[in-house]
Description:
254 residues, mainly alpha, two-stranded antiparallel sheet, 7 helices, elongated
Amino acid sequence: MKSTGIVYAMFAVAALIFGIAVPFGVHRAGSQVVPGWSGLVNPGPLSKAHGFAAGQCETCHTPHEGIRPQNCIACHAQTQFGDKQSTRFHVAVTTCTTCHIEHDGGVSLVRMDHAALAEGGLWSGPVAKPAEPGTGGASQKRPLPWQPAVTGSLARLDCASCHSNRDRHRGFFGQDCGTCHSVQQWTIAEFLHPSARSTECVQCHLPPPSHRMMHFEMVSQSVAGKRASVEQCYACHVSDSWNNIKGKGWYKHH
């Protein structure tokens, strides 16, 4: 019995020494100080973009602290997030790992996670402001036959801060994108285009810049054979495509 107790005590002491020495050594000299340590604690493969750091845990991980935003910034400081409106929000993000999760082969972020931006404390960027009466927005122009597509915590996001440069409405419907569009897709299943006989196209569609120049008279009107004003879209165009010209069919010269 005595010998068995001594053996157990020796194992306990060895385990204690190992439990103290390994973390201390890794903290002082890095994960490579203990052969095989990286492979023992590695949770999975890195993405292709971060594959260069395989086996070099300290590139991203700070001992006893985990992954700090500073570690990410050290590599991505030269990335021009601020040059594109759609990526500018990264400048105001306080943590990267909420959306970008490594050690899964790069499959964690397959699409934009708007819900993560709606979490408190993650993003210090602009939030949506309640629309004031008469200031625009689709909901201010006419009642919608459906409920707003973006509700709950997502409604606090200021869609226009990232998407106004890609606004096909050219600001005509205001900046409250979530009134009609969801964060999963831009298309709206409930939307029905007005009748092809409608003469109120300019309520939604603004003419392209070419229609405000001499180009309109020299090319567009001569091709269509119409002398309508630039606001009378229906005189030349049909509702299935802008390039489908009445009496001419498909026409595209740009």
